[in-house]
Design a protein that fits this description.
By secondary structure, the protein is α+β, with helices and mostly antiparallel strands. About 50% of the residues lie in helices and about 20% in strands. It has a domain of about 230 residues: Heat Shock Protein 90 (2-Layer Sandwich). The two termini are about 45 Å apart.
Length: about 575
Amino acid sequence: MSFLQMKIYRGKFIAYTIFVVFIGLAIGLLTCAILLYQWVDNARTEASGDFVRLENTLQYNADRIEAYMQRIYSNSGLMTDVRCFLGSSAEGYFAARLEGSRYDQPLVSFPDDMESFLYSGGQGDIVQVSLHTEQRGNMIRFDDNGNANFKFLLSNGDEAFRESIERGFVYRKKLSDPKQISRQLGEFRFLVGSDRLFKNAGGDGVKQAVIVSSSGDAYKVGAPDVRLQELARQALANGKAQGYLSTGGLNGVFFISFSSTKLDYRYVGLVDLGSLIRDRWGVLLTVFLVVLSAIISVLMLIVYNLRDDAHFLHHIMDSIGRVKTANFTVETPARYRRNEYGIIATELEDMIRQLDKYIRTEYLLKLKQQETEMKALQNQINPHFLYNTLEAIRSRALVNQDVDTSDAIATLGALYRNMVKHENVITIGKELDLLQDYLKIMEFKYPDRFYYQFNVDEELLSLPTVKFWMQPLAENFFVHGFNPGNEFNLLVVNGWESEEHFILEVVDNGQWIAEGKLATIREALRRGDDAPVQSIGLHNVNTRLHFFYGEGFVLRIENNEEAGVKISAIIPKEARSHVQASDCG
């Protein structure tokens, strides 16, 4: 019977399954949440590091620009060339340079000097330098290879001078007359390009960065993304330094923002939750598989325990059903775990065996006892035996007129009284008394030609046994082995205790049994076949003692080496726990 067929265990299994699945999912979700939080936190830490590096880069550029302005003021030739560059056309600039130069001094070039000092061979962040008057400005722009391009006399409102977060950050420095500091000659504008400035602060698919100016202009680091720029604006409008913006499903973003202390902008780091999950799906899948394996393992353990308990309960119900129908057939012992359930099941099986043993003892044994008594009355103590015994008593009384006559009559009377008593279970000691009464009569019948002897240990005398089984074994000797012409016919009963058994032997010195017939008798006893051994009464004795002592009992018959037959009754010691001395009459 499956445990799912039992209501109590089916309910338990459903409850356990719901509980285990709930706990497993809770642990799995909690683990995934912790991992996601850790990954988001790592991304935030990286964003914080990017912002710090950006601020350091801006500070580095500001320091270089300030140092270059000091260089201009400290170098008169360079200042002269800057004044020539200011407000002139290309032809005017080169003409002014030549007019002011001296043959004994090297020609100083403001653009070349600036390129060497600021741009550092094409590796700098400053992509454009312009020098302005109130109306116009001249511009020097550096390409990716560090080559300079010049544009002169551009309007201050020209597109080339437009300031936006997409183009970069502009540092403004006034150009004053060294001889008259209060007199302003023009204005320097240094453009730090956004593409170069943020090239190391870009995103990786999961972590993105957006730069937002105070006017609301947004610059997406890396490839332009209007969606992320809008999310960055929403994050700043949220007013929090960090938080979460939901865009539906798993497409939300975590954000962290920083305000610059160098320039007018805010750095917004964005962590895309959907991209984060897709990027780390292998780890999350591993967590899912581990949790799933744990749930399956726990459920299998629950199934194993419930199945074992259901097997126990099914056995209990089956045992009770068999007892109710008086079916005490002993089933193959089941294996149980060493717990209270196992103890109950084992004790129940033992109780059924004890009931079966009791019924066999009280009912089957009574039937066999009645059969034995009838056979004893009809066959073993037959009319011929009674006639001969009484004739012997009468003859002795007529001839001798001694006390032997009285003893023989008393012994015969005691034997009959004991035979007709109703108790079925007696001790070995009482059974030996019955046998002794019978042998006394046989000793009276065959004076000076028959002798008997008992050598039974004291430990065996209190052992319970069935009534009247030794006399048929002794009678077997008188029927088949006794020689009336022999002056010394001997019957000996030995009894002792071995390590595992109690052993009783009935030994005589009469005639042997032929080997062929002996083999037939042994086989018949082994099979429980009654026909071949009926004449010597062994089958009845063997059957009754098997009923009483159980399967461990053995009845053996064999020829002695010198003469006669030996019949051994081997009683297992464990039978003592099934047959109690209190059962004896």
